[in-house]
Amino acid sequence: MEQRWKTIIEPFKIKVVEPLGFTTEDEREKILREACYNIFNIRAEHVLVDLLTDSGTSAMSAEQWAAVMRGDESYAGARSFFVFEGAIRRLTGYRHVLPVHQGRAAERILFGVTGGPGKTVISNSHFDTTRANAEAAGCAALDLPAPGATDFDVPGDFKGDIDLVALEEAIRRIGAANIPMIVMTVTNNSLGGQPVSMRNLRETARTAQHYKIPVIIDAARFAENAFFIKRRESGYAGRKVADIAAEMFSYGSGCMMSSKKDAFANIGGFLALNDPEWTRKAREILILGEGFTTYGGLAGRDLEAVARGLEEVLDEQYLTYRIRSVEYLAEGLRRAGVPIVEPPGGHAVYVNAKKFLPHIGPEGYPGQALVCELYRTAGIRAVEIGSLMFGRREGGRFVPAPMELVRLAIPRRVYTQSHIDFVVEVFGDIVKRKDAIGPMRLLEGSERLTHFTAKMMCGAA
Ligand code: F0G
Fold first, then answer.
1. Model pLDDT for residues 274-287, shown as the tens digit of each residue
2. Domain ranges of the chain
3. Atom of ligand 1 nearest to the CA of 53
4. 25-54+315-458 and 62-312 share one CATH topology?
5. Which of 44, 315, 319, 330 supports an S-S bond with 344, CB 3.0-4.6 Å?
6. Using CA atoms, how far apart are residues 63 and 67, in angstroms rounded to an integer?
């Protein structure tokens, strides 16, 4: 786009549309009650603006749909697999490519190969399924976010980094032989969608190499991370995002990717590795649980959609719009007086519910109270990232999460500026009566990943 225009427009036009689900306030109150105040139990047709996740919710391009029609559905050796494999090899430089049905399958397989009791996986921050899969394989999962990552009011360029000092210290303490890998999650979803700098990736690789520990990249949002590096890290402004991504991948010896994010696919993922021995074992588990090595739980058409998506996501016109549209929401929320995690992330704005609703303590689930209020007020669906998701019970005692956030994730190429304006307007209304928002109470929920199954009600415990 020429420099003279300051409006950054959606870099696409719309050919297929889907109606939104309009409801009345009375209907929504009833829907919430019937869903036990758990927004995962609400039918999507009853949601007006769905900011639950950016995962699997992208609009595919005309070229992706055309590629879908080219899908080769052969059981073994499908042409679509080689298209998929070629796209991933070109992007990452890794030799062996294993398709999987989504990111968590790659996690399960990789930790199945490398995990076991007594081992510790270290990360800048594990995403919740990554942690759950590491633990299910018998490992401990250790997060070492950079200092300041949880100072939500203080902006920083690369708050997704790993703490290099703590990393070195942890390796010495735990012993390199007990650390099967270091997982670098780009961008860092659990801590606000914040990017990881190239410098941090490079230095992590240097430390890892010294101790002979493999670095694996959780690449769900690699392109957004690469674009932040271009924008924020010195020496990268003139580089192509594709080259920046290639350099990022060069600091790992493999990656896991949920293609439901930065590949614009509605399903899919992959594991890409250099190590032949890991690959051999991973393929065995792949065949056992996902499918034959050239489709891995996906249809040929899905492989085509991912391959095409991985190219499209590196379009800088798109990335400029993508990051700008998230910033635009953040600006609106700040103007309305809503405290957010600063700066906004690549795929989402995270509202600091602890600060927004200070009259509700963690045992009253302030994040979930705000999530319910957003739905009740205007049919907007968001997700709590706080004590409902990460809180625990230890011997009957409630241990809250370190943060109480509400994530407003923006699906890719789906909503327009007026949808975002609407969300900001709704927040403006909620701000005026926020002191009247009451606490929530947990009635029932499973031990792990509570938020998916929780039953709640309004009122103090
Ligand atoms: N890694 C990261 C960083 C993720 O954000 C996710 C999923 C996964 C791995 C797992 O991938 O869903 O394809 O199995 N994040 C979604 C979200 C669910 O809403 O943030 P998956």
1. 999 999 999 999 99
2. 25-54+315-458, 62-312
3. 19
4. no
5. 330
6. 6
Ligand 1: which residues within 6 Å by Cβ?
Answer: 53, 55, 102-104, 127, 129-130, 185, 189, 218, 220, 258, 260, 269
Q: ω before 145 within 30° of 0 (cis)?
A: no
User: How many whole angstroms from 105 Cα to the centroid of ligand 1?
Assistant: 11
- C-alpha distances (whole Å) from 132 to each of 129, 136, 165, 170 are 5, 6, 26, 21
Which among 340, 267, 275 is positioned nearest to 305, based on CA atoms?
267
- CATH topology assigned to domain 62-312: Aspartate Aminotransferase; domain 2 (3.40.640)
Alpha helices, DSSP H, located in 276-383 = 276-289, 300-312, 316-336, 353-356, 366-378
Question: Looking at ligand 1, which residue's alpha carbon is closest to its atom 8?
Answer: 103
Residues with catalytic annotation?
Answer: 75, 127-128, 218, 220, 261, 451
The answer to whether 272 and 96 are in contact (CB under 8 A) is yes
Cα 228 to averaged position of ligand 1 atoms, centre (Å): 20
Q: How far is the CA of 55 from the centre of ligand 1 (A)?
A: 7
Q: Which of 261, 271, 302, 385 to mutate to test the pocket of ligand 1 (most atoms within 8 A of CB)?
A: 261
Tokens 């007086």: give the residue. Answer: 337
Residue 1: its pLDDT value, please?
60
Query: Is the preceding omega at residue 187 within 30 degrees of 0, hence cis?
Result: yes
User: Hey, what CATH topology would domain 25-54+315-458 get?
Assistant: Aspartate Aminotransferase, domain 1 (3.90.1150)
Amino acid letter for position 362: P
Q: What is the pLDDT of residues 335-390, one digit of tens each?
A: 999 999 999 999 999 999 999 999 999 999 999 999 999 999 999 999 999 999 88
What atom in ligand 1 is closest to the CA of residue 269?
13
pLDDT of the residue at 2:
66
- List C-alpha distances in Å: 160 to 35, 132, 198, 326, 444: 34, 20, 11, 17, 33
pLDDT digits (tens, 9 = 90+) for 141-163: 999 999 999 999 999 999 999 99
Nearest CA to ligand 1 atom 10: 103
Whether the predicted pLDDT of 226 surpasses 90:
yes
Give residue 250 CA to ligand 1 midpoint distance, Å: 22
